[in-house]
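Hello again, I could really use a second opinion on something today. I've been staring at a protein lately and its backbone has me curious. You're getting the sequence in one-letter code plus the fold written as tokens. I'd be grateful if you could look everything over and explain what you see. No rush at all, and the record is pasted right below:
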Amino acid sequence: MGVKFTEAQLAQVLQRQEMDREKRERKGIATRGEELEQPKKQKGKKKAKPSAKMQLTTIFEKIFDSEGLLKIIHREVKFDEERKWRFDYADEDLKIAFEIEGGVWGKSRHTSPIGYASDAEKYNSAALQGWIVLRYAHATQLLGGKGLLKYGRKRQVIECRGVVEDYKAAVRLRAEQKNPKVNQVVPSKIYQLMAEAGIEEVSVNEKLSTNGKPSHNTSTRRSYGN
């Protein structure tokens, strides 16, 4: 014989069951035969992390802008009409190029056998055309000073001059060359850079003889800065 409940008792039982179900929901426990509805996570668009090359490019431009040299440098300079090769940045007057090698830190075209061989061909061609190509793959190479290279478990400390000092060294090299066409555009830039550095430099008009000694008719030295 079944147990009979009055309407009041039945209402109390149903009320108690409802309270138990609410407690279970708050604790994240599902009752038999039912599943708790999980709140749907809103999928927000994740900001794409800048690539290594993009980060290095930003650093390069900030450095040259702070030095007042960004107006001298041009982006995406084509130096080979047949192969359509371009430099990331270049001083076209002095034929000094800058390459940002951000793709070396992971799998990319640059690190593949075909890509590496193609880059070697590009840089060989640039050298034969008289270009000085300065290449950068790490922020420390651009900023100068000491830095730590990390790749997997490997660690290596490097010490660099920085991109501005590299550029000045390349300009000095151009000034020492005997090419008349180069020397026509070098003086104004070399004088400006030497004045900013506050150092004394041999006049770019001073030509060296074949034995490496100054010629007799040009021995003038100029002082720049204070």
Notes: The chain has six helices and eight strands. The beta strands are 74-80, 85-91, 96-100, 132-136, 145-151, 154-160, 200-202, 221-223.
